[in-house]
């Protein structure tokens, strides 16, 4: 099920409602410490990437491997992730700080666990 909304360009965009969000557990040494939600594994990975120690710029950021297990499955999505700090845009809302953390990811593959 999808709902249609207008994006900021005025084009119609299909979006999954919140009920279509999936949960992904961040795996570190077999422990699942945090859960990130998103309609896709990449959305969850981008949220997780922003929790990494940020570099001073994207070019200086060192990629780190992150592993996200989709809850309810044995699938582990593997990404290279990096984060950096940059100045917030001029039209930022009043509550937003002057510097913000941004992140990016690159999918490396999927593993299937025998057991969780």
TrEMBL record:
<keyword id="KW-0238">DNA-binding</keyword>
<feature type="region of interest" description="Disordered">
    <location>
        <begin position="29"/>
        <end position="64"/>
    </location>
</feature>
<protein>
    <submittedName>
        <fullName>Nucleoid protein MC1</fullName>
    </submittedName>
</protein>
<comment type="function">
    <text>Protects DNA against thermal denaturation and modulates transcription.</text>
</comment>
<feature type="region of interest" description="Disordered">
    <location>
        <begin position="93"/>
        <end position="116"/>
    </location>
</feature>
<dbReference type="GO" id="GO:0042262">
    <property type="term" value="P:DNA protection"/>
</dbReference>
<dbReference type="Pfam" id="PF05854">
    <property type="entry name" value="MC1"/>
</dbReference>
<dbReference type="InterPro" id="IPR036620">
    <property type="entry name" value="MC1_sf"/>
</dbReference>
<dbReference type="InterPro" id="IPR008674">
    <property type="entry name" value="MC1"/>
</dbReference>
